[in-house]
Amino acid sequence: MPVSTPPVPHPAQAAHPPVPGADAAPAAPRVPDLAALDLTDPQTFLDVDPHAMWRRFRDESPVHWHPAGPRTPGFWVVSRYADAVAVYRDNKRFTSEKGNVLATLLQGEDSASRKMLAVTDGVRHREIRNVMLKSFAPRVLEPVVAGVHAHTRALLGRALAAGRLDFVSDVVDHIPIQTMGDLLDIPHADRPRLVEWNTRTLARHGSGDDEFESLMARNEIIMYMGELAAERRRNPGDDVLSTLAAATVDGEPLTEDEIVLNAYSLILGGDESTRTSLIGGLIALAENPEQWRRLKAGEVSADTATEEILRWTTPAMHFGRRALVDVPLGDRVVRAGDVVTLWNTSANFDERAFADPDRFDVGRSPNKHVVFGHGPHFCLGAFLGRVHVKAMVEALGSMVDDITLLGPPQRLYSNFVRAYSALPVALTARTAPDHDTPTRTGKENH
User: Where is the stretch described as Disordered (predicted)?
Assistant: First the structure.
């Protein structure tokens, strides 16, 4: 896809220079001046303390103009919760059809535009979403939910028998892909390949990895789903892919691209985001022993713990939109055609929306995070995402006595997902596991 030509300096740069000032709270490593930060570079998210960085953005430049790079245009960085929610809600003045993440927005287009739900707006978005919603209703997914809980407990049981393990490859890699695989009826032998392709699509292992590998991995998934969709047309089943292949809107079938790209999107979004939440959640529990004690003791509900793990980990660090008209936002004016990035990883730690946001609190309520976005493009798979995390929360609370991190987690190289490639841990089983320990599961307001 062509790279758009960098524009002339944005007028807002002169009108609203960065506000000088120190960090609201000292952090190491030190956060450079905001104007010096390059949010297009994944290395930034490995080198800089994210809490300190985003605190400075929220306090000093909440609607911030990020300068153009050698091959990319400038763009807006929205870091406060209220501003992000306002843009998420506004599908009249902002569009997803030019891309919804930095990588595609800065290229000027998304090849899946008006075909894949996430980058389709208006009437067609509603039509495709309504087709897919039939397969994602909680009632329809009841057998899937039961399977997630059983599969999670079985994997955790094997992990406890081993004692020492890599929580990523031995446990988490086998959870969401099995769910998405069951929904799409993907042969079991093919699922490990999809996990690897998916990881390479969204992130790299380091700066030395070739971006071309990410593109090739994406194409592998799309070609695979295309072959599977063709087979489902010939031999339909009761899976989501068969539903897409057989669906009609006003008597017309979905196009081949719509079928394949929306199936691809389910794999892309459902696997990596869930894995990130499960891995980050275990790290948070290990590093916050009082919260781990509260969970084991049944002092908090599995629902509130699930929501806090989702907020704390915020797998998709950002989403984005392009402005269709001039829009005032904060004390700035976003011009028609501008790229606007909404940083969930900052909004979910905004002191204006969350009390003591830098504290991991498994009893936090309310907890109206934006992990799944907001508004018309609210994540179709949010229910399943919560199911996966809750299943792990309940299994850990009833089966595990102690979590010990045996080394630092290995982060992947990305400015989109806060993902991991390895996490060495030791898990100790409860001496007399009480699988009937009551866990509060009262529904919270989200």
Answer: 1-27
83: nearest Cα among 54, 111, 110:
54
186 phi and psi angles, rounded to 5 deg = -85, 130
3-state class of 204 per DSSP?
strand
C-alpha span between 239 and 135 (Å, rounded): 8
CA distance 366 to 361: 11
Burial of 4 per CB tally in 10 Å (0-12, 13-18, 19+): middle
CATH superfamily of 41-159+268-429: Cytochrome P450 (1.10.630.10)
Residue for token digits 């030190």? 30
Backbone angles phi and psi of 97, in degrees to 5: -75, -5
| Residue pair 101/203 in contact by the 8 Å Cβ criterion | no
371-421: per-residue pLDDT in tens?
999 999 999 999 999 999 999 999 999 999 999 999 999 999 999 999 999
Judge whether 93 and 325 are in contact, CB under 8 Å. yes
Q: Where are the domains of the chain?
A: 41-159+268-429
Q: Could you give the maximum distance between any two Cα atoms of the chain, in Å? A: 67
What does the angle CA 229 – CA 230 – CA 233 come to, to the nearest 5 degrees?
85
Position 213 confidence tier, pLDDT thresholds 50, 70, 90: confident
**Rounded-to-integer distance, Cα 305 and Cα 360, Å:** 10
- DSSP-derived letter for residue 446 is -
SS3 content of the chain, % helix, strand, coil (to 5): 50, 15, 40
Instruction: Using alpha carbons only, give the angle 16, 19, 24 rounded to the nearest 5 degrees.
Output: 145
Measured CA to CA, the distance from residue 322 to residue 94 in angstroms comes to 5
The number of residues in the chain equals: 446
Query: Count of CB atoms within 10 A of residue 210's CB?
Result: 9
Q: How far apart are CA 400 and CA 116, in angstroms?
A: 41
The label of the residue with tokens 């490859």 reads: 169
- At 338-369, the pLDDT tens digits run 999 999 999 999 999 999 999 999 999 999 99
DSSP per position, 251-273: TEEPPHHHHHHHHHHHHHHHHHH
Q: Which residue has the tokens 């400075």?
A: 56
Read out DSSP for 354-375? SSSTTS--TT--S----TT--G
For 255-269, 312-326, 357-371, which range has the lowest pLDDT when averaged over its residues?
A: 255-269
